[in-house]
Amino acid sequence: MRSDDEASFVDSTGEETVVSPTDSRVIITGAEIAAEAVDETPLIDPTTLLPHWTDAPTGQVPIVVAREAAESGDPWSAIPAPAWREGEVDWVAHEDQFDASILAGDDREDTARPWEFTLPDDVVAEEAVLEEAPRPEPHRIQRTRRSITSNPLAGRAVRQSIDRSVSRATMTGVLLAAVVLLVFIAGALPVAVLVLAALGLASAEAYAGFRAVGAHPASVLGIVAVLTLSVAVYNKGLIAYGAVSVLLLLFGFIWYLKAETAVDVLDGIGATLFVYAWIGVLGSYALLMISPQSFSNGHGLTYLFGAVVLTVANDVGALFIGRRFGKHPLNAKLSPNKTRGGTIGGTIVTLLVGVALLPLMSPWTRTSGLEVAAVLSVVVPFGDLFESMVKRTLGLKDLGHWLPGHGGLLDRVDGLLFALPTMYYLTHVLKLG
Q1: Cβ neighbours for 5, distance < 8 A, ≥ 6 positions apart
Q2: pLDDT at 248 (0 to 100)
Q3: Cβ-contact 146, 152 below 8 angstroms
Q4: pLDDT tens-digit profile of 297-324?
């Protein structure tokens, strides 16, 4: 029995609990006493419980992945799964189980090794197409400049050849030789003026020839450079060559920098420097020889006259003897009119003049005249062929037409341009001065 002051409660198990007013406990309905609650399922699996860290090691290592492959039709299943290596035997356990032939198709030769197999037909066909496909050729951008293998003068207007006559050429030659002889008799200063006039006209003809085929040389600048070089060489000697050449290059750059229209600068500067070197540099040796600084007693004037006489002798001999006996061209591509017979004839006449005529002038001797004549008989034809090569390149028959029967002045002094520096250095080698 319970008194009126006591209260009763029924818990979750159905049991009635009586609490008197003097009881100090707090009763929560539906709660259980913690000490009486027992978990029937352990929180830790004893089979997987790790030993205490203070226990001695057992040497056992758990397996990460099972070694046994799943039984299936997948060929990749034959590859062993990764496993934890426990001993030496684990490193070689599955060494020979991988067969590389599983990567190939169904057709495989019985005698082939595991790594030798035949690719499927679709793969072989794809590789064959790649091998047979033509390799694309590299595309090269063509330069804007002319090709050296083609005709650089195709489609350009060129000068027509003038009618030549042997009689007219002979008359013109005799008159020209008389004028030159009178100038030499007058002295060194008239000869210097004549040389300057000849070099200026010859360079003007050359620049006109380049312009006729579409080039853009700095003609005025080039002619001024040729004349300046000749005067500077007469006064300062060989040191003037470097100074004037550098100035020409610098002023040539400024010339084309200020050009109003776009031109091929390489062709322009190239043509300007070419004519300057060909006519200006080679021709200025004439003034170098007659300069008082080069030779004393006026011997330089005699050497220059000897070079002119031997050059004329070679040209005359080659012309007349070549017309009579010349049958085989000396160089058919450059000049079909120059023959081997004419070259031999010019050499003979040059040697005769060197032995018979030059010794009449001091300080020439018969020996020195013969030696110089032998050398110039080889050099002068080279000068003729050089001009022929230039005219052939430009597509011109003659660079001028104001000398009846001869063409231009440059057509008459082409061999002399090569003879002048040769004569200057021969006088030093043979110690004629």
Answers
A1: 20, 21
A2: 95
A3: yes
A4: 888 999 999 999 999 999 888 888 887 7
Q: Which candidate, 108, 75, 80, places its Cα nearest to that of 95? A: 80
Q: How far apart are CA 233 and CA 231, in angstroms?
A: 5
Q: How far apart are CA 386 and CA 390, in angstroms?
A: 6
Asked if 18 and 7 touch (Cβ cutoff 8 Å), the reply is yes
Q: Which residue has the tokens 């030499």?
A: 184
Residue type for position 109: E
Helices and strands in the chain, H and E counts: 13, 4
pLDDT in tens, 191-250: 999 999 999 999 999 999 998 888 889 999 999 999 999 999 999 999 999 999 999 999
Whether the model pTM is above 0.70 = no
Measure the CA angle with vertex 161, ends 156 and 165; round to 5°.
Answer: 175
Q: What is the DSSP string of 386-408?
A: HHHHHHHHHT-S-S--SBTTTBS
* Number of residues that make up the chain: 433
Rounded to an integer, what distance in angstroms lies between the CA atom of residue 201 and that of residue 218?
15
Closest CA to 278 of 421, 417, 407: 417
Give yes or no for a contact between 347 and 314, defined as CB atoms under 8 angstroms apart.
yes
Q: What sign results for the dihedral spanned by CA atoms 28, 30, 36, 39?
A: negative
Q: What is the pLDDT of residue 362?
A: 85
Residue 256 · residue 269 · CB < 8 Å:
yes
Q: How far apart are the first and last CA of the chain?
A: 167
* Domain residue ranges of the chain, discontinuous segments joined by +: 80-123, 186-294, 297-433
Partners of residue 17 on adjacent β-strands: 9
Which amino acid, one-letter code, is at 53?
W
Structure tokens at 234: 């007469």
Cα separation, 190 vs 298, whole angstroms = 14
Q: Which tokens go with 158?
A: 């060129």
Residue 230 burial (C-beta neighbours within 10 Å; 0-12, 13-18, 19+)? buried
Per-residue pLDDT at 314: 92
